[in-house]
Amino acid sequence: MHKSEVGRRIHLTTGVVSGRRCLACGAIEPVAGDEPIWPPAWRCPRCAHVVPQAEGIPMFAPELANTASGFDPDAFDVLAQFEAGHFWFVARNSLIVGLVDRFFPRARSFMEIGCGTGFVLRAIAGSREWDRLVGSELHPAGLVYARKHLPSKVEFVQMDARDLPAESIFDLTGAFDVVEHIADDEAVLRGLRAATKSGGGTIITVPQHPWLWSRADEIVRHQRRYRRGELEAKLRSNGFEVRFSSSFTSLLLPLMMASRLMPGKPSVIEDIYEFKLNPATNGLFRGILEAEVRMTLAGVRWPVGGSRVVVGRAV
To answer: CA separation (Å) from 227 to 102, 180, 202, 262, 301?
Structure first.
């Protein structure tokens, strides 16, 4: 039996509705509103397992920290250079924040799975007053950047997205271009559902269309590009009702297709074509994508695009 299933059985028998979950025994401990979810050197009250720490960050999967599992941790250095001004990352943030405001206006607690350098989490943190914000990441190398640019009240935790140590704690969860890196993506969706309160929700973005597969996907260690409807079906089968679904990067799809067919294959993440735009082109593309985001939030649904974004409600 998977540890998460053990935890849920203990949840049902003890009547605890939410809390931190011990990965060693599955026990669930309630969390007070004014304390961290995972306090420093937290000890499970049932089995006495102590969660190790590294520079104040709880380490739930230390054996995987900064390994090449699913993502190259060295890539955070590159992402930290490009994200803040890059047309795609900036427009995606606008879309994510807009969807948070539209579908979850009363959410006050949020956890991001695979927060990387914290670029999305910074945008969400600045969108309203939150009672609790958590950034999780398999690789502490990403959290080094995230902690520098986020308020001190944000909690950071190292964990494996396939086995989340939380039960019914968050109003909202999210994974932004993360689950495509993980072979067992449905384990992540199950964990997100377990960590999300009933009636709360999740927002997920993924790369779309297997026919767009290229050397760029191999460099960033994608397991898949999603078929239209695939992520929605997986969300439904793991406890979510789909509230919203649309393609993203639709207006620029022809240029994206052309870039994937350009002669010469990139060998490292710095060589991916979209990272090598001059400022004028980057500004033009940003304007186009931001217009697409405004249309999406106004009700347009795009049938094709380089990415897909799906909003699910926990049922």
So the answer is: 26, 12, 19, 23, 16
